[in-house]
Amino acid sequence: IFWQSGWNFMVEWLNTPLGQQRATLPSLYLFSQLILFIIYINQDCFYNYLVKEEFKFFAIIFLQCHTLITALNYIIQWASMWTLWDYYASDDWRLMLIVSIASILAIITLTGHSYDLVCSPFIMSYDSIQYNVRIETSFVTEKMSPFLLHILNYIFNEYIISLLSILVWHGSYTLLDVFLYPNNENMSAAISLLIGYVLFFILMYTQSFQNNIGLLSTFIHLNFPSFIQNLRHLCAFFSCIFLWRGYWILFDAHIATISFVHESPYTSYVIGIIISFIILSIMKIASSINGPMSHINDDEYNLFPLYSNCFLVKWFNRKKNPNELSSGLSKITNVEPFIIVSF
Q1: How many domains does the chain have?
Q2: DSSP string for residues in 241-307
Q3: 301-325 pLDDT, tens digit each
Q4: Has residue 38 got a pLDDT over 90?
């Protein structure tokens, strides 16, 4: 609902005379990139401020504001680039298929994995200063200043990986629009949700089992581990595509057509953004909108080795450790040294 409301708000505004001007979309994209650049280069200062903040309540509020600004900024980035692609690229499904496959291969070539295509509900984060302020890098660096590292990470993530991810999502989504009951929205949404949830439950809740018991031959697991991992990531990505598309179709067909929403779209979508974000913040998983900025390693029992479901992990850890006296607030503000890892 958060993403759909923000996205529909953008679509409504882009249909206004100002939004239809040629310079609007590139300007929005550059604006979003500027905000992200500020977030990247100031992440250490902001992190240190939150850690040293004496009033922990204010630290939590600032953290949630940071999450909200980042999430809204990503909506602007994705919606503007997605719309630019709609305007200037051919809608031929063959081209979409080629671009999607090429983008997937490019992501795997650059990063070694296709994990960056996977999002919620597979990636479930919890709101924490430790994991949602400083942005992890996939580079192995030595004797590089933090400022240069943040710039390098920003360029790689927000200009290369982000663009490739948008192309993959756009192409896959368009292909489903073309071939999956294009004239029957309810049927298309139902099949999307069915396929998405079947893949989700198989991949999400059998992670530990899949790692411990090889479903393929030992030879393949030992000699082609990256292939197996990327195959899982791609299946998870397709599950995300089906799930998000199913809910978005239902939202547009049955909620966006309500008279109040139709008559006051801006007000309705802002309300949707605010309510959904408040609910997620109360559950302490609002950062799942963006995914964790850093690798989360609180899964003591290796329940979710591939896709972290921090909400369930923390609940399970508390069940296993009933005598643990640390409060929820202390866990939010508990920090460990930041470690740069290489994928």
Answers
A1: 1
A2: HHHHHHHHHHIIIIITTSHHHHHSHHHHHHHHHHHHHHHHHHTT-GGGGT--SS-----TT-S-SSS
A3: 566 667 766 666 666 666 666 554 3
A4: yes
Contact 218, 150 (CB under 8 A): no
Tell me how far apart the alpha carbons of residues 83 and 21 are, in angstroms, rounded to a whole number.
13
pLDDT digits (tens, 9 = 90+) for 115-163: 889 888 888 777 888 878 888 777 766 677 888 889 999 999 999 999 9
Give, in order, the Cα–Cα distances in Å from 241 to each of 61, 208, 342: 32, 23, 27
Residue 189's identity, in one-letter code, is: A
Read off the pTM. 0.84
| 338 in a structural domain | no
Does residue 341 belong to any structural domain of this protein? Answer: no
Give dist(CA 336, CA 237) in Å, integer: 31
| 340 found inside a domain | no
- In the numeric block, the tokens 């559950």 are attached to 283
Whether residue 305 lies inside any domain: the answer is yes
* Structural domain containing residue 256: 2-333
